[in-house]
Design a protein that fits this description.
elongated; 84% helix; 10 helices; 219 residues; mainly alpha
Length: 219
């Protein structure tokens, strides 16, 4: 324990640098995943046959081992943050895509028909009806993807992308517990904090009426 406290006191700057690198890699990967997966899922709800193929391909990508995915990008993109973000981006797609597709598909068709009857355009239906009602399911996918990516981002150190994995794997190589702990604890804390913040965002983004319905059902 004394070694850990001593290392953190002496190397706080290094730990903070690795935390920032880890946050950067994870955040960019999840953001890119959400920017692609959410609009794609909305489109796929209008194309059920195509949706099965796309979801199947995304599922196959998810089964590829993390290190294999990272290694695949090295000949194409080299070493560093770009291949790491690219690999993590692919991993982030499936949970967000699947949840968004499910959430939009399960919106009550009567509400959609009522919107059409009021003269709403497809975009207005998506923006004002489908997305708000599907928000809890969509955000659940984003939360799952975020926690997974923060964990998988530790492997980015193998291709020179930095992050908390540098501390963890250096500590394992040198049999230095303080390095492992200095990398593992912040990575865990980041995942927990990110999940909490996203849960708050989910609550704020969910329509009040839907929140009240959930509270009534729970009670």
């Amino acid at each position: 324990m004394e070694n850990i406290i001593s290392f953190l006191n002496e190397s706080s700057g290094l730990v903070l640098e690795k935390i920032w690198e880890h946050l950067y890699i994870s955040f960019i990967a999840v953001l890119l995943g959400a920017l692609l997966a959410i609009p794609l899922a909305i489109v796929l709800t209008r194309m059920p046959k195509t949706a099965k193929v796309v979801l199947g391909v995304a599922g196959v990508l998810q089964t590829i081992p993390s290190l294999a995915m990272l290694a695949f990008f090295i000949p194409v993109l080299g070493l560093g943050t770009v291949p790491a973000i690219s690999a993590l981006f692919l991993y982030s797609i499936l949970p967000i895509l699947q949840n968004t597709y499910t959430g939009i598909s399960e919106v009550n068709s009567n509400l959609v028909q009522a919107g059409r009857g009021m003269g709403m355009t497809t975009w207005e239906l998506v923006r004002d009806v489908e997305i708000p009602l599907a928000m809890p399911t969509v955000m659940a996918g984003v939360r799952v993807a975020t926690v997974y990516i923060i964990g998988w981002a530790t492997l980015a150190s193998f291709i020179g992308a930095g992050g908390l994995g540098d501390l963890i794997f250096t500590g394992l190589d040198l049999y230095r517990t303080e390095l492992v702990v200095a990398g593992a604890i912040p990575a865990t804390a980041i995942a927990l904090i990110a999940d909490f913040l996203l849960s708050r965002l989910e609550r704020r983004a969910t329509p009040i009426g839907l929140r009240k319905m959930k509270q009534t059902a729970a009670s």
